[in-house]
Design a protein that fits this description.
The structure holds 2 protein chains of 2 kinds. Chain A is α/β, with parallel strands linked by helices. Chain A contains 9 helices and 10 strands. Chain A has a single domain, classed as 3-Layer(aba) Sandwich (Rossmann fold), CATH 3.40.50. The longest helix of chain A is centred in the C-terminal third of the chain and has 17 residues. The N and C termini of chain A lie far apart (39 Å). By secondary structure, chain B is an all-alpha fold. Chain B has one domain: MetI-like (MetI-like fold). The termini of chain B are far apart. Classes of the chains: A alpha/beta, B mainly alpha. Chains A and B meet through helix 2, strand 6, helix 3 and helix 5 of A and helix 6 and helix 7 of B.
Chain lengths: 245, 217
């Protein structure tokens, strides 16, 4: 069953054509990595999946709901589609534990004791149980991102979107975040769509790689195929540039 | 010469303190009403509801560009002509609340705008509704940032109640004028007393602000 399906999707910012004729199907349980030069529309594409960006034409079906239909209740989709951001977006006014417990309490009406138990288990899983009562401002970037991942997981989503989760981190913090992401990909049957520049992570975790440039999908291939022999000329160029440093 | 003892006799003092009571009373009601109305107006402008928000924004701009004294006169003299007869105290409260709500709403809108867009996206991406996001994530952060400008606006409000002496509201300023009109030796003592009284009220207000600031930190 497909979790995410783009059919002839077009997206414009005013006159700027941000997404061009996107056709893409991602099955439930798949881990897909989205790569490409900056400005290629990767982030825009991933943000359309939970409705943070609207599409102008075509059909976008997520978890059975048509996002382009104005009658669709976005909050219902977002309940099942979590997102991890480049800049973490933790609530500055809430403690680490409260960051994780807020949405399950308000949206899922989860029982308070159970909510806390799940939140603590997740903090344990990302290695930050001792930070439960800290405010986000007291954490390092890598720690913030691990809390943000725990916050998304607390909703028990079917699908998790990662929008350049390690791009804003100091180099020594990247490993810890990628490790958590790798574990999620391996231990769960969650669908994962990841925008990243971490090629080693893509090679290790992704089932499929999608290469984008100038708002269009130029290549969609299995991870092995893509890294061994990309068919698209731009993709080849991109890979050689990424590998060279 | 200045005659402090006669100017601040027991009779005069109780007369002046009643005036201070009126000043504080008008201020408290105006603060409460303008904070509530100003919050709604500020949030309405922030939410960018088609037509409605720009209508409110335009009205707001008009009100903010009028002198408060004009609004006080207008309320006092025009409301009776449309059949609304208010005692002078409440007429002043209406005028002050109207004007201050417009001033406060801009502070509130600005405070909400100052919150990083990522805070919305973080909350919305977990399935929280717009209302929940505003209530639990955005407003607590915005109000904390707004405390200093809100308090300085509210201190202006307390001081500006003195304008209502222009429609003969028996507030501290008006009563001070009444007392020193009796004897020119009273002028400076009474002005000093008024200075002290306004300062104490507003200083208490800023202490309250510090308390809230610490509580919300």
């Amino acid at each position: 069953m497909s979790m995410i399906e783009f059919k002839d999707v077009e997206k414009y910012y005013g006159h700027f054509h941000a997404l061009k004729d996107i056709n893409l199907k991602i099955d439930a349980g798949e881990t897909v990595v989205l790569i490409g030069p900056s400005g290629s529309g990767k982030s825009t594409l991933i943000r359309t999946v939970n409705g943070l960006e609207e599409i102008q034409e075509g059909q976008l079906i997520v978890d059975g709901y048509d996002l382009h239909d104005p009658k669709t209740d976005m909050n219902k989709i977002r309940k099942n589609v979590g997102m991890v951001f480049q800049h973490f977006n933790l609530y500055n006014n809430k403690s680490v534990l409260e960051n994780i417990m807020l949405a399950p309490r308000l949206v899922l009406k989860r029982d308070e004791a159970e909510n806390k138990k799940i939140a603590m288990e997740l903090l344990e899983r990302v290695g930050l149980a001792d930070k439960a009562d800290n405010m986000p401002s007291a954490l390092s970037g890598g720690q913030k991102q691990r809390v943000a991942i725990a916050r998304s997981l607390a909703m028990k989503p079917k699908c998790l979107l990662f929008d350049e989760p390690t791009s804003a981190l100091d180099p020594e913090m990247v490993g810890g975040v990628l490790k958590v992401m790798r574990e999620i990909a391996q231990d769960s049957d969650m669908t994962m769509l990841v925008v990243t520049h971490e090629m080693d992570f893509a090679k290790a975790v992704a089932d499929r790689v999608i290469f984008m440039a100038d708002g269009a999908i130029l290549e969609d291939a299995s991870t092995e195929e893509f890294f061994k022999a990309p068919k698209n000329e731009r993709a080849k160029q991109f890979l050689s540039q990424v590998d060279s440093h | 010469m200045n005659d402090f003892f006669a100017a601040l006799s027991a009779d005069n003092l109780s007369y002046l303190l009643q005036g201070l009571g009126v000043t504080v009373g008008v201020s408290i009601f105006s603060i409460i009403i303008s904070l509530i109305v100003g919050s709604f107006v500020g949030i309405a402008m922030f939410e960018k509801i088609p037509y409605f928000s720009s209508l409110i924004g335009t009205l707001n701009n008009i009100v903010r560009n009028l002198p408060l004294l004009l609004i006080i006169f207008f309320t006092y003299f025009s409301l009776p002509q449309v059949g609304i007869r208010l005692p002078i105290f409440w007429s002043t409260v209406v005028a002050m609340s109207f004007f201050e709500a417009a001033m406060l709403s801009e502070i509130i809108r600005g405070g909400l705008e100052s919150i990083d867009k990522g805070q919305f996206e973080g909350a919305r991406s977990t399935g929280m509704s717009n209302k929940q996001t505003m209530l639990y994530v955005i407003m607590p952060q915005a109000y904390k940032k707004m405390i200093p400008p809100l308090i300085s606006q509210l201190i202006s409000l307390v001081k500006d109640t003195s304008l209502a002496s222009g429609i003969v509201l028996a507030d501290l300023t008006y009563r001070g004028q009444v007392v020193y009109a009796q004897n020119s030796h009273y002028i400076v003592p009474i002005l000093i007393f008024m200075t002290f009284a306004y300062f104490v009220v507003n200083y208490l207000l800023s202490l309250l602000a510090k308390y809230f600031d610490r509580k919300l930190a």
